[in-house]
Amino acid sequence: MEINSKRLHQRFYQMAEIGKTEKKGVSRLALTKEDRVGRELFIKWLKKLKLNIRVDDFGNIFARKEGSNPSLPPVVFGSHLDSVPNGGKFDGTLGVLAAVEVVETICENNIQHDFPLEIVMFTNEEGARYTQPMLGSGAITGVLQKEYVYQLKDDNGIAFIDALKEIGYLGNQENRVSKVKAFIELHIEQGPVLFDKGATIGIVKGIQGISWQKVTFAGQADHAGPTPMAQRKDAFVSAIKAMDKIHRWVSKLKDETSVTFGKCSVSPNVVNVVPGQVTFTVDLRHPNKKILNQRVDKVKEIILTIASHTETEEQIEEISFMEPVLFSERLVKEIENICDENGYSYHAMFSGAGHDAMYMNRLGETVMIFVPSVDGKSHCEEEESLWKDIYQGTDLLFQLVCKEIGAYSYDFK
Ligand SMILES: [Zn+2]
């Protein structure tokens, strides 16, 4: 008994037509016409499987199949169908379509099970149209307030609630899922680790913690000509020295720490003026909260030292701190076992990007499965994954779901 890889492949390219771009990527932004058409196709498949379909008050879609005991918490799996502008066709969509395939395989083989199962499709995961990523999952897990979500505006000033009504997907609060036995999300890695290692499966142990700091160096703006080099308090030079020192330190750590200086502004930003003030951001990531905090402390120490050496004033402000998320060790172990039994090569890792699973973790035991991204490319039209990897990833999802729902009268061989 196995998944129907041909059917999965066929459905995948059917969905990829919706919002298809010139270079065969996808633009299917949340709550647009393309999103609506994608949802309709998804629901058409769910109806054929005779699942009980619900839409909640954020447009998240759930499709449920009862087990022998409806009072048990459901095993939920899925992902998102929205994309970034000119994004790839695998991000999110793969997890949703793999979920449909898994359930169809369960249905057509008449597999009996105890726990209910639910496929889920989350709204606005990307944070592209409404700049709040993982909006649908964040809203039902108590991370985001309904009032806040509803009034969010897109670039054209259209409120989330109006866009949701416009495409006809404003459902009821009682349709949310509130407790899960397990949440499982299959997703592309979106980075190069698995592809470079030649591993098929990424077992995701958790999601890295992220610290964002805003750093300002204040020196003295001066004329670029008459001011002698030795007397300058050049804020830009201080910033560059600090960034260089932090960057070299992190590179030498050779662990999961990453650092990015993604944004920088120079004042007055004039060709013949010594920069008086520079502000830049520091994005620091690590899967362990304690170590992440130590990294933040070290960054602050470097900045203080540079400021005192260069006679500039420093200011460090925390913009955001997202704690690392640890997924279920039990589910990680289950996946390892299934991989071992089936000879699937795997690599245990942390996700550097946020996913709906990060919030669903609050509702019950959660885990993610990654499949490799060719050359690590994602959020672009070139995003690609190999079908041999996708089939193994989907089969793994199928076997894990069967275990979690307490399936009986089945045989995988
Ligand atoms: Zn995604």
Quaternary class? single chain
Task: Compute the separation of the termini in Å.
Answer: 6 Å
Structural class: alpha+beta
CATH superfamily descriptor of the largest domain: Zn peptidases
Rg result: 24 Å
The number of helical elements comes to 12
User: What's the CATH architecture name of the largest domain?
Assistant: 3-Layer(aba) Sandwich
Keywords: Hydrolase, Metal-binding, Zinc
Organism: Neobacillus mesonae
GO molecular function: hydrolase activity, acting on carbon-nitrogen (but not peptide) bonds, in linear amidines; metal ion binding
Domain Peptidase M20 dimerisation: 207-307
Q: Could you walk me through the main structural features you see in this protein, from its secondary elements to its overall organization?
A:
It is a single chain. This protein has about 425 residues and is α+β, with helices and mostly antiparallel strands. The chain folds into two domains: about 280 residues, Zn peptidases (Aminopeptidase); about 110 residues, Alpha-Beta Plaits, CATH 3.30.70. The protein is about 35% helix and about 20% strand. It has twelve helices and 16 strands. Strands 1, 2, 3, 4, 5, 6, 14, 15 and 16 form a nine-stranded mixed β-sheet that branches. Strands 7, 9, 10, 12 and 13 form a five-stranded antiparallel β-sheet that branches. It has a two-stranded antiparallel ribbon with strand order 8-11. β3, α3 and β4 form a beta-alpha-beta unit. The longest helix has 22 residues. The protein is elongated and about 85 Å long. The model has no long low-confidence stretch (mean pLDDT about 95). Bound molecules: zinc ion. Zinc ion binds next to loops.
